[in-house]
Specification:
Blueprint lengths: L26 H48 L16
């Protein structure tokens, strides 16, 4: 005769389970985790979108500023002589 080893139920003499049965996360916990993940993903997408559109604009502004500075120095608009700062102006 074949003996089957089924699940063992560990009960106390009063009829209660010795350990609480292991259960998975509840629906509320799963929804909370999905919500937190969705919010984090939204912030990451927003940061990526800002980087994609802001960095090229900043590069163009920097190039325009560099070109303006080079143009003004070529025309003598900026002078790099020594400047003495005085506390009192006459």
């Amino acid at each position: 005769m074949k003996t089957t080893n089924g699940p063992i139920i560990d009960m106390t003499p009063s009829g209660h389970f010795a350990q609480e049965p292991i259960t998975g996360p509840t629906l509320g916990v799963i929804l909370a985790r999905v919500l937190v993940f969705t919010i984090a993903l939204g912030f990451a997408a927003l940061a990526f979108w800002l980087a994609v559109f802001t960095v090229p604009i900043l590069i163009v502004i920097g190039l325009v500023g560099y070109g303006y500075f080079r143009f003004k120095t070529a025309r003598g608009g900026f002078s790099f002589d020594r400047v003495m700062m005085r506390g009192n102006r006459p």
